[in-house]
Write a structure and sequence with these properties.
Length: about 190
Amino acid sequence: MNCMNFLFYPKQKINIDDTNSINSSTNSINSTTNSTTNSTTNSTTNSTTNSTTNIIKIKDTIPFSIKITEGYVVSISNKYSILIASKLPFVDSPLYRFIINFNGITTPDNYNIFNQKNIGELLKTELTNILLHEVVILKNIKNDNNILYADVYKKDLNINEWLIEKRFAVPESYIRPRNWLSYKISGTVE
């Protein structure tokens, strides 16, 4: 099993396994700490007792804030997001990948209802032609439950606004077109 060790509490190490379960990892620490501290004591009892004091709650955490402003587009993930490569703003940062969703817009789903799939495929092709292997600038980055949203720019072109202008998207606050093909052709929402 691939495990990663990192400092979690001062002078305590925790193993995070492939399940990324903080509670089970906390229990692992407690049983390991208790069994090494006092090997004559029943570690199961100590683990149960101590695990309730070391449970991490959401209120004990803060959302992660991404400090990136641009990235190189390596893939068009789907009709509403791109995959970029970028470094974080510190010396010797590795090259990370981030999925960025377009902020404030709604695009066709993958479903084949009223030609949504065809418009979605056309949208993906257009985004590929414009953005793939290009550097984009990210503005107004938002982290909503670990999903990143941003206004995406290629030089001075706001891609979010361009998608609305070309009728590949509508603002989030608008009524979503039931027939994206009709909307793309005429601009009317049915």
